[in-house]
Each structure stands twice: as structure tokens, then as C-alpha cells.
């Protein structure tokens, strides 16, 4: 089973409903081969409702047909236990909810099982509706068009289950956000077939469908206008954009499956699904979308208590953070003691990143925090030349900081002024001579200018020659620690 990440893939619909304003803002059809049967398929129709509009019916009609057999009309039944739509909560609503363009949506899922009478290269499953939301801004005369959703199956090479989405498609965008957004959607391909992602045109019925023309400035490859264009990856289905014009945008994505045939020694298309979604792009974002208010659970904002003897720092952000802006080497952060000395950061990892964003972060330190102290976690430009970027398209300001409070550590007499140490030369070229007051066990640590541990050794000698020829020129912090004492000094390699 393969896990993939992609963007909002679309679908369209058309039925015999009235000409009232459409309540549907997207949808899609998937199919699943029922295990243990010859050609039984579970067909699933997912529709997205604008919650400000009337509810959907408890049943929906889905057609199936092919060149091998005319097929029939199926009646799919709502699976939602409450007999209503399931509200979808975005990870964070970047858009200001007072704006008219903002949408709140719910998901309606309908299912029906069908036995296909034979194998065929072009089984089609489709659903349609006669109305389309008139507020859409990137297609011509949206209120005069319907919508058509369809998927396709070729079971001549064996039965097949289509990919399906494990994340919701709904998002709101802020126009002119400072940095481009990376948009992901999580998808599972149950049969391990190869998949290709692409963008598609909105369709209207009757089947097989007519293409609805784009407004000026929009096209199939650029359904959204952006300051940096739309960068779509056909291998992963992700795309990157910085939206520029406000409006209600319709986006359609397509997944096509391919399977390798040992008989022909070539790849063959075996299925296609699509998903369509409408989402708003707004001028004004929520006040938090342009700031980094951290939700540190159980603590004051931007202040975090750390347990004594911990060697990790974990915190949670109110606004999800883009996974591709986090550098695992820890270079996005520095941590400083109250005396200004840096702490080593070994690595940083996100806690959960299946949809391209995370809210929980774990920083692994190169030392245990054994002293009561007030530390500062500071944002900086990482080795990827960026600071962290959030769900709404904003970057964490360089120099923004979080106060880390280390409490409840016992007084074990650690005092930087109690240790006697002679060391020379400083500045140095390759070696430093260390002369201690006794032969007790000591830990020697060396940190670079961004707080990363670059040397770590334990000794029980009174005199030691420290070989640092492997280090590049620069400023370092030398740390000598025993169970009772600690000392830190700045050294310079020339």
C-alpha cells in the first residue's frame, strides 16, 4: 500500500435538481473492488455542501455505462449516521470569518454496490447536477452551467480499486501572502499501481460532458492567479502558489492509474478519478494569520516550562507549520542560556506531518537541562535559507523568541566559578592544551556559533591536548562539566 501526498483533486456533478442556487461546492467519485467477488464494486460519491444553503437528499443517483454494456442508474444511500452532512474543520481558518467570501462546508458520503456484467476497458461512473454556484470567479457565467463528476475503470487487466483521499480538500487562501504555499493532500493507492496527477477543466452534463470555458487570465494549468504562478508536481500531486486575486475559485485535479502488464511488457491506464472543489481567496486574513501566536498547552503564550533533566523541548503552534520549511539539522533555531551561552541543538523533528503541515515540534538538545534557568528559543534562518513558514503563507520572523523556564532542579552545587582550568592558546590553530585541578571525570563539549554540538568527549585526566584541527575557522563555546561543577569559555579558531 502506497501513501502519497497531493492537492485538492476535483470532481463534478449534475442531476435533476431544481434551478435553485447550488449548495454543492465540490465532490468526487471513487470505486473499490469488493474482495472475494468477481466484479462487485462499492461506488462512493462524496459531495461537499455550503452550510449556508439547504441540506442534500438522503439518496443520490449514480450512472454507470461502458462501450461493452449500456449499464444502468444506481441509487446511492447516505452513509452519515446523523442523516446530515459532516462539518469539515480546516486546520486553521486563515481567512477572516466576517468576509462574505468565506465558506463553511460539510461532507456528504453516499454508497452503492454494483456487479459489473463483464470486464471492459471503459467503465464510467458519473453523477451530475443542473446548477453551479454563481459566485465562482474563474469560469464564464458559472450560474448558467451545471456540474458533472465522473470516474473511469479499465478492468481488462484485472480488478482494480481507485485511489482515495485521506485528507479533506477544503482550504481558504489569503491573497498576497508573503510567501508561496505548498498544498498537499494525502492519498492512498490500495493496489500499489503507478499514479500520475494532472489538472482538469470543469465539466457540465449531460455525459460524457462539456468543458466550461475559463475566464480571462485563467486556464487549466493555472486555475488560480498568483504572484509566482502555480507550480504543480505531476508525480506527487502537490502544488505551490502565492494567490494574488481574491474570489471564489474552482479547482479540479485528476489522478490516473497505470499498471504494468507482463504480457505486453508495457504500462496500461487502468483507472481515473477526479475531485473538484470551490474555495475562497480573500483580501484580509485573520489577525493571527500574519503573526506567530504560539499555543503552548498549559502555559502562558510564548512561554514554556521545561522539566528538570530534560534533553528535549516540545511545543505546539496555533497555526500549522509547513513541513517543507523545517530543517531537521536544527538550524532554524538557537537556544541561549540566561548568561548568553548557546545550548547545543542536535536535531529537530515534527510530530505528525501526513498532510504537509504539523503543529507539534520536538527539539533534541545535546545536553540535559540540570539547572534552574530562563532560556530563550530564538527563530533564525536555517540551512535552507528560510525561517519556518505557516499554513497561511507567512514566515516566522527571524529573532522571534519563546521563553523556556527550567524549574524544580535540585541544587547540586553547579557553579561556573568553582572550576579551575588553564587552557591555551586562544585563539588557536589546531590544538588547545587543557590543565585541570584534578583527575576527576569530566565531559568536554564544544559548540559552534549556532549552538550545535561539534565535539563531545569524556576524560579522567588532569592534562589533555584537545585536537580541533577538523574544525573550520570561527567562534566556539568550550564547555567543561563534572557532576558538581561547570565552566564555559569562548574560544576562537584562526
Could you explain the architecture of this structure?
Residues 1-21, 296-300 and 412-417 have low confidence and may be disordered. With 494 residues, the chain is mostly beta strands. It has strands at 2-5, 24-33, 40-50, 59-65, 72-78, 86-87, 105-115, 123-129, 147-153, 164-165, 173-174, 181-183, 186-189, 194-199, 203-204, 210-211, 226-232, 239-243, 247-261, 266-282, 303-307, 312-322, 333-336, 342-343, 345-351, 357-365, 373-379, 401-407, 421-424, 431-436, 442-447, 453-459, 463-467, 474-481, 486-493. Strands 2-3-7-5-4-8-9-20 form an eight-stranded antiparallel barrel. A five-stranded mixed sheet has the order 21-28-27-23-24, with no helix packed on it. It has a four-stranded antiparallel sheet with strand order 32-31-34-35, with no helix packed on it. The relative contact order is 0.13. A hairpin with a 5-residue loop joins strand 31 (442-447) and strand 32. It folds into three domains: 2-284, no CATH class; 291-407, Sandwich (Immunoglobulin-like); 421-493, Immunoglobulin-like, CATH 2.60.40.
List key phrases describing it.
494 residues; 35 strands; mainly beta; disordered N terminus; Immunoglobulin-like; single chain
Summarize the structure.
This protein has no helices and 35 strands.
**Strand order, sheet with most strands:** 2-3-7-5-4-8-9-20
Mean pLDDT: 82
The biggest sheet amounts to: 8 strands, antiparallel, barrel
Structural class designation = mainly beta
Instruction: Tally the beta strands.
Output: 35
- Helix count, per DSSP? 0
Whole-angstrom Rg: 29 Å
The amount of beta strand, in percent, is over 45%
How many domains?
3
Q: Based on CA inertia axes, which overall geometry fits? A: elongated
Low-confidence segments, given as residue ranges, are 1-21, 296-300, 412-417
Name the helicity range. under 10%
Distance, first to last CA: 54 Å
Amino acid at each position: 500500500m502506497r501513501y502519497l501526498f497531493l492537492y485538492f483533486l476535483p470532481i463534478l456533478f449534475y442531476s435533476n435538481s431544481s434551478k435553485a442556487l447550488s449548495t454543492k461546492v465540490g465532490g468526487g467519485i471513487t470505486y473499490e473492488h469488493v474482495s472475494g467477488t468477481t466484479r462487485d464494486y462499492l461506488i462512493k460519491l462524496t459531495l461537499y455542501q455550503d452550510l449556508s444553503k439547504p441540506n442534500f437528499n438522503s439518496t443520490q443517483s449514480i450512472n454507470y455505462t461502458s462501450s461493452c454494456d449500456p449499464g444502468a442508474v444506481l441509487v446511492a444511500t447516505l452513509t452519515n449516521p446523523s442523516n446530515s452532512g459532516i462539518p469539515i474543520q480546516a486546520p486553521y481558518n486563515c481567512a477572516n470569518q466576517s468576509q462574505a467570501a468565506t465558506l463553511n462546508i460539510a461532507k456528504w458520503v453516499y454508497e452503492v454496490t454494483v456487479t459489473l456484467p463483464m470486464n471492459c476497458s471503459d467503465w464510467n461512473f458519473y453523477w451530475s447536477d443542473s446548477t453551479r454556484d454563481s459566485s465562482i470567479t474563474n469560469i464564464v457565467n458559472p450560474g448558467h452551467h451545471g456540474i458533472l463528476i465522473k470516474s473511469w475503470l479499465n478492468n481488462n487487466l484485472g480488478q482494480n480499486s481507485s485511489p482515495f483521499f485521506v485528507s479533506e480538500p477544503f482550504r481558504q487562501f489569503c491573497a498576497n501572502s508573503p510567501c508561496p504555499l505548498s498544498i498537499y493532500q494525502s492519498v492512498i493507492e490500495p493496489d500499489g499501481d503507478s499514479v500520475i496527477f494532472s489538472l482538469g477543466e470543469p465539466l457540465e452534463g449531460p455525459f460524457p460532458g462539456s468543458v466550461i470555458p475559463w475566464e480571462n487570465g485563467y486556464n487549466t494549468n493555472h486555475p488560480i492567479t498568483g504572484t509566482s504562478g502555480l507550480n504543480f508536481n505531476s508525480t506527487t500531486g502537490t502544488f505551490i502558489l502565492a494567490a494574488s486575486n481574491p474570489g471564489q475559485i474552482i479547482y479540479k485535479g485528476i489522478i490516473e492509474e497505470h499498471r504494468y502488464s507482463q504480457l505486453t511488457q508495457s504500462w496500461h491506464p487502468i483507472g481515473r478519478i477526479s475531485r473538484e472543489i470551490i474555495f475562497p481567496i480573500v483580501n484580509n486574513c485573520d489577525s493571527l494569520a500574519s503573526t506567530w501566536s504560539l499555543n503552548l498547552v498549559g502555559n502562558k503564550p510564548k512561554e514554556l516550562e521545561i522539566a528538570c533533566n530534560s534533553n528535549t523541548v516540545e511545543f505546539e503552534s496555533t497555526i500549522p507549520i509547513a513541513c517543507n520549511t523545517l530543517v531537521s539539522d536544527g538550524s532554524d533555531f538557537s537556544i541561549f542560556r540566561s548568561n548568553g551561552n548557546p545550548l547545543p541543538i542536535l536535531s529537530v523533528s515534527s510530530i505528525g506531518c501526513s498532510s504537509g503541515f504539523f503543529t507539534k515540534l520536538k527539539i533534541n538538545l545535546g545536553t540535559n537541562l540540570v539547572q534552574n534557568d530562563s532560556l530563550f528559543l530564538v527563530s533564525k534562518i536555517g540551512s535552507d535559507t528560510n525561517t519556518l513558514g505557516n499554513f497561511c503563507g507567512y514566515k516566522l520572523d527571524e529573532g522571534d523568541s519563546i521563553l523556556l523556564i527550567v524549574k524544580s532542579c535540585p541544587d547540586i552545587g553547579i557553579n561556573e566559578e568553582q572550576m579551575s582550568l588553564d587552557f591555551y592558546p586562544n585563539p588557536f590553530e589546531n590544538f588547545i592544551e587543557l590543565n585541570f585541578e584534578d583527575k576527576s571525570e569530566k565531559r568536554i563539549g564544544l559548540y559552534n556559533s549556532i549552538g550545535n554540538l561539534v565535539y563531545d568527549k569524556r576524560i579522567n585526566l588532569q592534562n589533555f591536548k584537545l585536537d580541533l584541527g577538523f574544525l573550520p575557522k570561527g567562534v566556539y563555546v568550550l564547555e567543561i562539566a563534572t557532576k558538581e561543577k561547570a565552566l564555559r569559555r569562548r574560544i576562537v579558531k584562526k
